[in-house]
Amino acid sequence: MSISTVEYNPSLMQFQYNSFSFNDVQYNQELEPEEEKKVEELKKIDSEVRRHEQAHKSATGKYAPGSPNFEFVAGPDGKRYAVGGEVEIDKSEVPNDPEATIKKAQTIKRAALAPTDPSAKDREVAAEASRLEAKARQELAEQKKVEVNSYSQSGEKVYHSPQPAIVDVVI
Asked: What letter does residue 56 receive in the DSSP assignment?
């Protein structure tokens, strides 16, 4: 990456272009053993954070359309290392469709618990998804109850489930 500046030099009556490249800055200095240990620790944390967030992302599918977001720190070697992260998940219910909400809640719960080491926040999201699923199951049960106990326009009770037929046989 580089930055360019343009300056007008009145004595020469021309523009001068100056350029600075960040690639020119190197951290070639020898790291102290303590700093090397810190870099190795940061590399391990970075790898774990990225693996953890990718597990969420892979399991979430369409409910997390973006990429994982990471929090970075600079190491003694000048490089950036991920030390935290998150995957934004759409945790809303599917309007007027409890069955779809149940499936969505189950997917969110699986995604929250997908990493081998779910965090407290991950378990909180899984619990929230379980509550969403329970609410949707209750709504679905109420819908089915209404369907079974519905009435026709003439006021007669209409059964949507099969009823046993009573037949009188006269001989």
From this structure: H
